[in-house]
Write a structure and sequence with these properties.
The complex is a heterodimer of chains A (225) and B (125). With 225 residues, chain A is α/β, with parallel strands linked by helices. Chain A is 34% helix and 24% strand. Classes of the chains: A alpha/beta (225), B alpha+beta (125). Strand 2 (11-19) of chain A pairs antiparallel with strand 6 of chain B, so a sheet runs across the interface.
C-alpha cells in the first residue's frame, strides 16, 4: 500500500490495487500443492441443477473403486441427498452444505479435507453447487474442471454460459439417451463447447446407462481410468 | 449471490488499509471490474453497504470502473479488444463471445477483462 497524494490536509488517497480474487486463488494454489504432495488427483465438477453431476460421480466411483481409493465431496445448499446417493456407489463421501452460498470456494475445500480420511487417497471428486454462473470465478485447486451439460437443458445451454466453459478442461454432454425425445443434438452441444474453447476434452455420455463414461474418464486422464 | 463473496473480500481489504493508515473515515472506494468479470456492480454495492455498516466506511461513496476486455489470438497473434456480440446483448452473465477480430478464430487468450480489484480508497485522518 502506498499513499499517493494528500488531496487536503487531512484527506489522503491510498493506492491499494488489491486483487479481490487473489485470496481464493492463493488458497486454490495451496490446495493444489496439498493434492500434489499426497498424489491426489482432484476433479471439480460443475453443472446446472439436474444436469446429472451426481449420477456421473456415481459412475466414476463405481469404475474406480476397485482400482483406486476414491473420495467425494458433495456441495449443496442443503440436505445430504447427494452424499447419500454417492455413498451407494462406494468410497468415502463428505457433504458440504453452503447454506445460501451459490458456489464452493478454495477455503471450503481446504476445510473439507480435514473431514476426509486422506490416507492413500488417489482420486477426489468434488461436486460443486448446481449452478453454471457463480462457481466459475472460484477455483478450488483441482487438476481438472469438468462441466456437465445435459440435452434436457435444451440446445442453448453452452452458448448462453460461455464464461464457465472458458475455464473448463473437459465437458460432458450428458443424457444422450434422451436426445431423441428432447430433439436436441448432442453433437451440436459438443461443437458449441469446442467453438468456445478449441482443445476442450469433450465426450457424449449417458450417466444413467454408463455409455461414454469410460471414454470421458480416459480423456480427463483420471488415474485408474 | 457470488457478489457477496467478493464484497466480503473488499470489506476486509478496505477496512484493514484504513486501520493501517489510522483513518477515521473512508470517503471513497474505487473499484475496478473487468468487462467480462461475472460481478455486477449493483449487486456488489448492495453487499458492500451491508458489510460496511457500523464501520468507518459506512458512508463511503463507491466508484466503479470497467477494465476493458482484451484478447490475444493464438492463431494469428492479433492483440486487442474483442468485438461485442452482434445481437447487442451485453449481459455480464453471458460473458464474452471470444472471436479474433482479424482471423475469426476462437483460440484466443484473455489478456484482461476479468479483474476484480480494489484500486484505491480516499480516507480522512
Amino acid at each position: 500500500m502506498k499513499i499517493s497524494f494528500p488531496s487536503t490536509n487531512e484527506t489522503f488517497d491510498l493506492e491499494l490495487s488489491e486483487n479481490m480474487l487473489a485470496a481464493n486463488n492463493q488458497l486454490a494454489a495451496e490446495n493444489r500443492r496439498f493434492f500434489d504432495s499426497r498424489g491426489i488427483f482432484a476433479i471439480d465438477i460443475l453443472g446446472s441443477v439436474g444436469s446429472g453431476k451426481t449420477t456421473l460421480v456415481q459412475q466414476f466411483v463405481r469404475r474406480l473403486k476397485d482400482k483406486k481409493k476414491v473420495a467425494s465431496i458433495a456441495g449443496d445448499l442443503a440436505t445430504t441427498i447427494d452424499a447419500d446417493r454417492i455413498r451407494t456407489a462406494g468410497g468415502e463421501v463428505l457433504q458440504v452444505n453452503t447454506g445460501s452460498l451459490c458456489h464452493l470456494d478454495a477455503a471450503i475445500i481446504s476445510r473439507a479435507m480435514s473431514g476426509l480420511n486422506l490416507d492413500g487417497l488417489d482420486v477426489l471428486l468434488i461436486e460443486n453447487v448446481g449452478n453454471l454462473i457463480c462457481p466459475g470465478e472460484f477455483r478450488l485447486g483441482a487438476h481438472c474442471r469438468l462441466v456437465v451439460v445435459s440435452v434436457t437443458e435444451g440446445p442453448y445451454m453452452i452458448v448462453k454460459h460461455p464464461a464457465v466453459f472458458l475455464d473448463a478442461d473437459a465437458v460432458a454432454v450428458n443424457k444422450t439417451d434422451l436426445a431423441g425425445v428432447m430433439e436436441v443434438d448432442p453433437e451440436r452441444l459438443k461443437r458449441d463447447a469446442l467453438s468456445l474453447k478449441p482443445g476442450l476434452k469433450t465426450a457424449l455420455v449417458s450417466a444413467k446407462t454408463g455409455e461414454g463414461v469410460d471414454e470421458l474418464m480416459r480423456l480427463m486422464e483420471i488415474p485408474g481410468a | 449471490m457470488h457478489e457477496a463473496s467478493i464484497a466480503g473480500s473488499i470489506v476486509r481489504s478496505v477496512l484493514s488499509a484504513a486501520a493501517e493508515a489510522k483513518a477515521r473515515k473512508v470517503e471513497t472506494v474505487v473499484l475496478e471490474f473487468g468487462e467480462w468479470s461475472a460481478f455486477q456492480p449493483e449487486q456488489v454495492e448492495f453487499w458492500l453497504r451491508i458489510g460496511f455498516e457500523n464501520t468507518p466506511a459506512a458512508s463511503a461513496a463507491f466508484e466503479f470502473r470497467t477494465v476493458p476486455g482484451r484478447i490475444r489470438c493464438r492463431a494469428c497473434g492479433t492483440e486487442g479488444p474483442c468485438p461485442k456480440p452482434e445481437n447487442g446483448a451485453i449481459d455480464p452473465f453471458i460473458g464474452p463471445v471470444l472471436e479474433c477480430p482479424s482471423c475469426g478464430g476462437s483460440d484466443v487468450e484473455i489478456m484482461s477483462g476479468r479483474e476484480a480489484v480494489v484500486k484505491s480508497i480516499r480516507v480522512k485522518k
